[in-house]
Each structure stands twice: as C-alpha cells, then as structure tokens.
Write a structure and sequence with these properties.
alpha+beta; rod-shaped
Length: 358
C-alpha cells in the first residue's frame, strides 16, 4: 500500500493568459533526505533519491495533473475531478538543476484571486512506497527511502499559515518539513541535534505538538501521583474496616457483659471461701485466681504446663468438695493431690465434663 506525501514550493512568478488564466512554472521536488512526521507524532528521515524522483515514471506522473485549492481529503480521481480541479499541469515536466519542474495553468477565478492576494505556496500530493532502508545521501543519513513516486495533484495553499500541514495530518501518513539550503530568513527547528530551516508556521506547529506532548507527560505524572494517593487511601480504608471489625468483635453486648460480670462475681465469691477477704483480686485473671485457690487447698501445686481445662476442672472439684464437706486447710479436705485417689478421680471427671460442654 502506497503512502500519501506532500511536498511544497513557492510560486515565484506567474503570467496571465489572454483568457485571464494564470500560468506558473515551479520546481516541485528535488533529491535529498527529509524529516517526515507520522500521524503518531514520530519523525523519521526519508530519502528522495535521484534515480527515483527523476525516473520516467515520476516525471510522467507530473504531467496533466489537477491543480487544487488546498489539499483535498482524498486522492483526486476521475470521479471527483470536477469537484477539486481548479486547473491542470502541462506536459512539460522535466529535470533542471537537479530539480523536477513543471508548468501549470490555473483556470478558477476564485483561486486566481487568492493567488493575487498572496496565496502562492505549492504543495504536491503524491503516493509512494516508503521502504525501510538505511543509508546516506549527500552526507545525510536516512532510515527510509521513497520509491515509485506518483504525483496525484498539485495544491495551491496559503503562505504563512499551517493550513496544509494541519489538513495533511488528517488524510496522509506523513507530511514533510522542507529543508532549505539558502538563507531566506526562515525559522530553524532542531531534530535529532540537527537544525533545519522551516517555515515559521511549521515551527509553530511543531512547537505546539511538543507542548502537547509535554502536557501529556505531565498529566501522566499527575495520574501516577493520584494513583499513589488512591492506593494509600485504599490501604487506609481497609485498615479502618479491619479496626471496625475488630472493635465489633471486642465490643460485648449488654447480655454478654452481664454474663461476664456475673461469672466474675461468682468466681470471686467462691474463691473468697478459700482465700479470705484479704486476698487482692484486682488485676488477677481468672486462671490466676483459680490457681491461687488450688494452691490454697494443695500448697505444693504447680500450674506450669497445665492446660486451662485442667485448671478449670481442678478448681471446680475443689469448690465442689468445699460445698459438700466444708473447707479447712487440714484434714480430709486437704486431699486434692492429683494422684490416683478418689479426689483426683473427681477432678478428672470434672475436667472431662467441661471438655464435653465445649
């Protein structure tokens, strides 16, 4: 598939025919290495080599081609010729001074008036195969070569405005930034470290494109920052949810609280029988209180390594015996030894009973 390209030149002189038409002769292309900007904004260096643009095929394609007022949004064909054509090129296309020249006649009154008012830039539209091929021409390196050039139309475009460049971006694969050898008070634009003389409007357009790119990069950085803040808030939200969940789990209902208070009161009441009113229950856990009761009944008792179930069963058995027989620190009630005696069996039964209840 061929790519559409646009070259440009300036109308230096024009002559009026007896009918009022305008006839001009201009160089429309020349060999060289030129920077082209693609639709995606990237720039690539493409070569127009002499054996291509001066080939019989390309020279012939410049003959009898429509002259248009600005570039149309499509190639000019038989079906749309009457809509776009404002004149026609002659059949005198030839090579002079290493440039391809052709003359043309403009026959449209409106376009002639625009040319008289200063619209004198010529931009040819052509199709070519853009082939990836590296090399150098006149000391300039290139990465692509334009081959099989075929001129489709010759457009008259405004001088001093970005009209052709803007239009070209919509309907072509690339547009050319012309490189000039002379000093014509043209602006310079740097590409890959090399300065090119370009029309001021082209420079403005390129600078605007760079500004858009810079703005896009800034927006991308801002987006990254926003994403970071969003992720931080997401973590904070998740932590808050976890804290609320934990708080709900730790937050007792009124009934649960009443049950715990009642259980604590009953524990202290039962333990007081053994430990006396002088025992300081403040800050003591349930296990610590129960172990204190067991040690009171069995002074050599060691709770290290014993499970909570064992301690609970031993404590329940101790209280049970106290209720049945009354408590004293001597005598039969001091027989809670944990060995094979009947008291030990009772403790084991109480332990098993607790385990079955869980």
């Amino acid at each position: 598939m061929k790519n559409q390209r646009f070259d440009k030149a300036l109308i230096q002189d024009y002559a009026e025919t007896p009918e009022g038409y305008l006839t001009v002769t201009v160089p429309i292309t020349r060999p060289g290495v030129f920077p082209y900007q693609r639709q995606d904004g990237t720039i690539q260096m493409e070569a127009k080599l002499p054996d291509e643009i001066f080939s019989e095929r390309t020279i012939r394609s410049a003959r009898s081609k429509p002259v248009t007022d600005d570039h149309p949004n499509e190639p000019v064909t038989l079906k749309n010729f009457n809509r776009y054509a404002k004149g026609l090129s002659h059949t005198d296309a030839s090579v002079r001074n290493l440039k391809l020249y052709v003359s043309m006649t403009i026959t449209d009154e409106g376009l002639i008036r625009k040319i008289r008012d200063g619209k004198r830039e010529i931009s040819i539209g052509f199709l070519s195969d853009v082939v990836a091929e590296q090399g150098t021409y006149n000391g300039e390196t290139y990465q692509f070569v334009q081959r099989n050039l075929e001129i489709n139309h010759i457009a008259i475009v405004e001088q001093g405005r970005a009209g052709p460049e803007v239009a070209i971006r919509n309907d072509s694969d690339a547009w050319q930034i012309e490189q000039t050898g002379g000093k014509n008070n043209m602006a310079t634009y740097k590409i890959d470290g090399k300065d090119y003389e370009v029309d001021s409007t082209v420079k403005s357009f390129l600078e605007a494109q760079q500004a858009r790119l810079d703005a896009a990069n800034l927006q991308a950085k801002s987006a990254d920052a926003l994403q970071g803040r969003y992720d931080a808030l997401e973590v904070e939200l998740q932590n808050t949810k976890n804290e609320l969940k934990q708080a709900k789990e730790n937050n007792l209902s009124a009934d649960e609280l009443d049950a715990k208070v009642q259980s604590r009161v009953e524990l202290i009441s039962g333990a007081t029988t053994f430990l006396g009113d002088s025992f300081d229950f403040k800050g003591k856990s349930e296990r610590e209180i129960k172990e204190a009761v067991i040690q009171k009944a069995k002074p050599d008792f060691k709770g290290d390594g014993k499970s909570d179930d064992y301690i609970d069963a031993f404590f329940d058995a101790t209280l049970g015996r106290a209720k049945q027989e009354g408590f004293s620190s001597t005598g039969d009630n001091h027989m809670f030894t944990g060995d094979g005696s009947s008291s030990s069996k009772q403790i084991e039964e109480m332990k098993n009973k607790r385990l079955n209840m869980k």
